[in-house]
Input
Amino acid sequence: MTNEEFVDLLNRHPQPCATTLGQTLITVDQEAGRALSTFVAKPEFCHSKIIVQGGFLTGMVDTVMTQALFAIMGLDFVVPTLELKVSFLAPANPGILRGEGEVLRHGKHIAFLEGTLFNEGGAKLVRASATVRIFPKPPRN
Output
């Protein structure tokens, strides 16, 4: 599957959580293990009326990091998170956010990922790293 076909497939059949977060996968690089997405940070995601709650930002960066891994490994796997570190560098306001995910290293069972969220002006808002476990996707019943 080409990078473009992979992006089209995920955008046509998004996970419900990705839909909730207003995610659109823009591009992947299957060789490099990278993904670029946009997210819609809705006013409903805010506390203090104008600041996006950190849990939503964490969901966004987690989504783009795992999509970078799926770009390399394909979609026949599930990748529960073993460890996640998130640094909130600046407040995020409602609007379009850009997420970048990258696979640092992966084996048969474990992968190390990094991700970053930016606002529309390009300011870095969130930096994250994750360790995930790789399992074959269980058969559907």
